[in-house]
Amino acid sequence: MTCSHYLFYISQNYSFEILRPLQKIIWQQGGKVLWFVDGNDVNFDNFTREEIVTTDPVHAVEFSPKATYVPGNVVPGFIPGLKIQVFHGLEWKKKGHFGMRGCFDLYCTHGPATTLRFEQLAKQYGHFDVIETGWPKLDGLFTSESYQWAEQTSQKIVLFAPTFSPALTAAPALFEQISRLVAEKDWQWLVKFHPKMDQTWIDKYKALDLDNLKVVQDSDVAHLLQVADVMVSDTSSIIGEFSLLGKPAVTLNNSQPGPYLIDIAHADQLEEAIEQAFASTPTMKEHISDYAQDLHPYNDGLSAQRILDATNHMLENGRAHLKSKPLNLFRNLKMRRKLSYWKF
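RE: above sequence
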């Protein structure tokens, strides 16, 4: 029996948490995985001894994958096999989440909030399928152990997790207020920055250097979500992950706030909003639960398995029912040039 080959096409460090649950299932079923790294933003120290990795497009093509899984927005058309979008976050509000780039055969969506829209797009364009599977990154969320650190106390824990986008991030606007609250309140603060956050702001928060604030550089987010009582953020996709645990989030100028959030317009409202979050009402908890069910209704830890099942279903049944994908001549030539791959 021929071993099945699968390619993971990545360009950012957040891809590890997303794709490793899928790798585990593939390995358990006797398949092989090759990680194909594009660009300079991936830390190669994150790879384990067991993982096979390449930056060579020739190696990726000769690996002859049945399918390529992508947590980013694009994938080279010259790689053989199905191209499958698994997404890099839950936050569908961000610009471009529903952008059609003509790269994918299959979209593995997370829940009704995104599935319904992608199904509409599938009917409109006709060149890809949509199957709701859940997100593999969350397979271990509900069973993850809580984060522990040396200075930990029994006080309430606030997790500050802003996004990196200059247009959306709360890191600059909330710095003074967080500095004050760290000094005046006995709350404990954990700070987790997006891997692409401006280093200037990372350094400023690190410089606060107080026992009740810790900037966490661990790549595992699940155990931070488990330990925190309240999250402070903006329009980051991590808010959705936190809501799946039934916990309240305070956001600064969220792009599309709903009743599941305590959204503030000004930094000086932060303290009152956190106090409100600590004392969440049954109504607030119900709103959070409703949002979580719409966003990602799966807590069984089997999303990676559903993605692989969806992949195998498409491999077995083909894509004869679909239109051909767009040629994307300019994008494909651009990617060939970027990767220095000119074989046809």
